[in-house]
Amino acid sequence: MGTGELMRRRAAGLVRGVWLPVLAAGLLAGCGGYGAQATAGLPAATQAKATGVAAASSGQLPATAAARAADEPVKITGVAQITFPLFESYLVEPFVLLEDEAGFVSRNFEFEMPPENQVVGPLRKTSDGQYHYTLHLPQQPVGTLVDANHSGTPQVMVFAVAVQANLIGDPFLDRSEFRGWSTSWSSARIDSENKDEIIGGALLVWAPDAAQEFPSGFGADGLLFTSDDPVAPVPAGYTVIDLELQPFRFYKEANPQLTLYEGDVAVKDYSAMSYTEAFDAMIKKVRVEYPFTDAKAVDWDAIYASLAPRVVAAQTNADPLGFYLAIRDLTWAIPDGHLGASGDDGGLFMAEAGSGVGLGLTQLDDGRVIASFVTARSAAARAGILRGAEIIEYAGKPVAAAAAAVIPWSSPFSTQHSRSLQQFRYLTRGALGSNVAVVWRNQGATEPQAAVLVLGDERESFNALSFYAGMERGVAPVTYRVISGADLPAGGVPFKSAQTGALMDARQTGLGYIKISDLSDDLNLTVRLFARAVQFFTDEEVPGIIFDMRQNGGGSPMGSGLAAYFTKTEVELSRSYYYSERTGKFETYGPPSTIEPDDSLYYPGRLVVLVGPACASACEDVAWVLRQLPQTSVLGQYPSSGMYGEVGRGQYLLPAGISMQIPTGMDRDMQGEIVIEGTGVVPDLKVPVDMVSVLSETDAVLAGALDALTLLPRLWRAVDASAMLLTQTFPESGESGGARILLPGAAPISISSGKLGSAWWQQLADAQASAVLRAGESQAVAVRLQDSADQVLWAYGWCAPDEATLAANWQQIAVRFNLEGLEVSAANLATEQHAVADGICRATFAALGDFPGGAHQLSIEVNFAEPIRAGQRIHAAGLRTYTHNVNAPQGSNN
What we know:
The chain is of the alpha+beta class. The chain folds into 4 domains: 21-264, no CATH class; 351-464, PDZ domain (Pdz3 Domain); 479-567 and 602-643 and 678-708, 2-enoyl-CoA Hydratase, Chain A, domain 1, CATH 3.90.226; 715-888, no CATH class.
């Protein structure tokens, strides 16, 4: 892409993926776990020597503090290789750590360094642009003794020097900041494609005496600290182990110089190559490392065949613009929002999209396209197009068809909804002075109007439809406030105060609101502000919190850490996969990403997460992780961006000053499904995109969130709804309530025991015989709940004599569930089928509970695309609406 959208997207933080390898490196890893006493396993004679640190801490030199030899290491200095583009933005408090490698020796990804064992030193960027460090070594080290020579007795300590950063709490690393061993910016070189094995670099070993041994090579298996390693004596004290030589070099220097290797997050620098060399090298690498080749049906051979001749021509003609456009078109050829290229577009963006007619277009849910923005004194305004006008034709085509043909300069996109929104945005852009025919109908008019508009120097409408329009600049990454109870609707579920025991509702306390605007700027500050907000809302006993994630371009995937305040049990989330050259497959290893409960803070209320297409990458990580908690609902007019490939290992520098990024890793949930990429985080409740919401000055999405936390029943996840049916049980709630099963045309089935029998499938079949409405008809049924804790299984189904007929009929049926006017996402609808006496039935259903007192409207819109035969009756194509008006008594959430 050119200098237009790309700068905005890169400024948003290279989004999610660039931070994940740093997580693996331990800079943000939420892990923890083992560490023996430093003297564990030592012979009695040497235990006394190893405890000298205790004497030193009391101000006396230990017995082992004899004068050091001149070559005994006392400090380590060197340079950290850092090309990672957001290093300084993310890590405002970096340092170097004498890292205990006991985790690597035992391949324990959960290894944790206790704070009292952490020895640190400064890391500074100097005038030459390099990062220099100094680390002074303690005379008596603190660490974990390991069995390096497989003698059965742990007798040496093994260290690396690694970059770390203070992100949470005090300056020392806790289990949520570091586990295992570092894979980036370490004195040890790491093979990220082979379970983060150490393959080179340098280590530091400490031995209590000269009777110890250490590996002198990798052995036949090529792995360090395995049984086939050759060993050699190691002197007492500190010894540097140079792993680059075979056999390893053991040496002592008072001030050894060790390089800290960046590892695979280093930018791949092909800028010194020719165009063809760089293109071929890059294609060779990305075609095997790109994780979504199958999921997105990427044809790398076809892409290469179409672009390679253009690259050759660019080299032959010394044409940097031609090379840039070939690389740009490579990124545009793959529907993945994490792909991007920056460079000099020769002014093409401004030439092709810098001018406009003054129209911002929005497509409504019903398919109409309206002028959601009209620039004053623009060509559109002078022609008489008013805000809210329906745009019928553009450039001689139906407006939707015209938009579908547009290739936005902000390409590529991971999701169709993001692409479509940008297509309408770019439809009204073009070259200065060009003209376009437009047909429109203003609100209240009966006849359309037409005019030919001339594109002028106009950007206001373009900016108005940006995903980031109205985004505040220069604010803290996390802001929070209480939404006053005076601004909330009446009728919410009362809850019992944990402090006084009195019943309260949200109008007394207000609701919490947290806006997370950035996940790539000062992560320490982000975590502290977020925790402070949650603590404040906990102390104030607000019954619900809204997380506004609608404008957040990503950065660090902090979801599991931020969600720690909202659960009392661990929740396993996902695993990361990367291509391995060793196996030729995408591999995962180590523990899964997990929400680990915070020991000091727990918020018990309901949560609503607001999303939209400007919630991208790491933003989607936070939204998705929070959605895995049962008290969370996601709400918005559109899903999030759906771009979730990890790009930290896919940064490239190419000739002609071009930089490019491409994903190299992906996440799968614990069921093996790809997470977020291509779908986004889909709202559980969709706020309508209609004339009212688009033209109103009110924030319709925020208003929907306030209703969701005060007036709407709780909507269970589809997996919970499906489990309710398959296991024939309902989730427990705060009160002992029964269950109601709502079927079109049938009286509610009451289940007071909490058990759901299979008889309702037969009732579904019986109801179909009499309850199918004619096209255009609607039906309403009143339902009174006995208890606010009653659970409701809200269903629509269809039955047929055999499975083939059922499948054919079902393909013609479109079902839309609406809860108080908000569309229930397909992600919250489960579909199951079951045999009945005369055939087979299939049902789509949602599960609801915790109904606020008062009336609630549940409607299902059923559209038959074509006539459907059921027995002797033919049901005409068209829309039917089934409504249940549910009345719930007042109750309380304890």
